[in-house]
Amino acid sequence: MAVYEYRGQRLDIPDNDSEYRGYFEAAGEHRLVVKKCRACGLLRGEPGPGCPWCPSLEWDWQEVSGKGTIYSYQIIAHTVIPSFRDMAPFAIVLVELDEQSGQPTPDDGLRIITNLVDGNLKPEKEENVAIGKRVEVIFDDEPDGISIPQFKLSGEPPKGETWQHSI
Ligand SMILES: [Zn+2]
After folding, report:
1. Share of the chain above pLDDT 90, in %
2. 37 C-alpha vs ligand 1 centroid, how far in Å?
3. Taking the model in full, what pTM does it have?
4. What does the domain layout of the chain look like in residue ranges?
5. CA-to-CA distance for 53 and 73, rounded, in angstroms?
6. How far is CA 136 from its chain centroid?
7. Would you list the DSSP string of 66-120?
8. CA-to-CA distance for 18 and 81, rounded, in angstroms?
9. Distance in Å, CA 107 to ligand 1 centroid
10. What are the pLDDT digits (tens) for 68-110?
11. CA of 112 to the centre of ligand 1 (A)
């Protein structure tokens, strides 16, 4: 059992955990991984043992580039989680990774939920967050050894038109 602390909260990762252990082991090497179905070969970013596209429960970790585009986002103005209160307001973004965009149907893609931070791992300013902006993974190396993948703006030209909530 690996026990970590993140922002005052305990994180337990049992040795027999198949859902998160490989994810954080890869993050410790500054690699971002997602699940790849052994049957149909499609990648997925959401937790859970089953493939959303076929009946298979067999999968392997697959490294991805860590580059993507903000597909959607929400600004968290208030949080009930005490250890995150000093971060608010902060952005939670749905990132569409560059791999597998438009598959298996035109409206699908490989998407993961993440915080959007700046280069110093502080919450990105609300006025800088917009749908269509390009992002890349950044690894938050915590003092007790766990590394947490987050995303930051990459500075690349946006993908198409950008859109943001009126501030
Ligand atoms: Zn599958």
Report:
1. 72
2. 5
3. 0.91
4. 2-153
5. 25
6. 10
7. -EEEEEEEEEE---SSGGGGGG-SEEEEEEEESTTTT-SSTT---EEEEEEE-TT
8. 26
9. 17
10. 999 999 999 988 888 888 888 999 999 999 999 999 999 999 9
11. 17
